[in-house]
Design brief:
The chain starts with 5 loop residues before the first helix and ends with a helix. The longest helix is centred in the middle third of the chain and has 22 residues. The chain has 8 helices and no strands. The mean pLDDT is about 90. It has a domain of about 110 residues. It is an all-alpha fold.
Length: about 160
């Protein structure tokens, strides 16, 4: 089956009644967990971005509590899982400042976790790619925000 374009879907949705739209949304939420999570964000959490960031930080903290720093292989897998979950929070929000705040928070947690980044090329590359992603996002922001976030990035650089 060929998917319709966004424009076609939008015009079809405009023609639907409110009860039909509710049914469509519920049916969409039933089929995929990500759809349900996105609807939850849009309906309940979008109005208070600060609370959303705090809840995301709690989930990130829970991930770092279970981080195994004894084995580099397992630490790498756990770290990728934490980053994947963080990226999901970022994708739902779609706000640049939320993305930067969460990625900086992950970098800080990595530094505080006790992981030996200089002993593992894989872990160091994951960390450096996060820093690069943050720097790229910052470069497209207002100069005042760039200055503030660049100060934070300098603190996160590996010595």
């Amino acid at each position: 089956m060929k998917a319709a374009s966004s424009k076609e879907i939008k015009s079809a949705l405009v023609e639907q009644s409110s009860t039909q739209l509710i049914d469509l949304c519920l049916r969409l939420a039933r089929f995929k967990k990500e759809n349900k999570e996105l609807l939850t964000y849009l309906l309940f959490e979008e109005q208070d971005e600060d609370a959303y960031i705090l809840s995301a930080k709690k989930v990130i903290d829970e991930g770092f509590e279970t981080l195994n720093i004894q084995s580099v292989y397992i630490a790498k897998k756990n770290l990728r899982k934490i980053i994947r979950i963080t990226n999901k929070f970022i994708k739902y929000s779609g706000i640049d400042t939320t993305e930067i705040i969460l990625l900086i928070y992950v970098c800080r947690c990595i530094q505080e976790s006790g992981l030996k980044l200089n002993n593992s090329v894989a872990l160091k590359n994951i960390y450096l790619s996060l820093l690069k992603k943050i720097s790229t996002k910052i470069s497209g922001m207002h100069e005042d925000l760039q200055y503030d976030y660049n100060k934070e990035i300098q603190e996160l650089e590996i010595q």
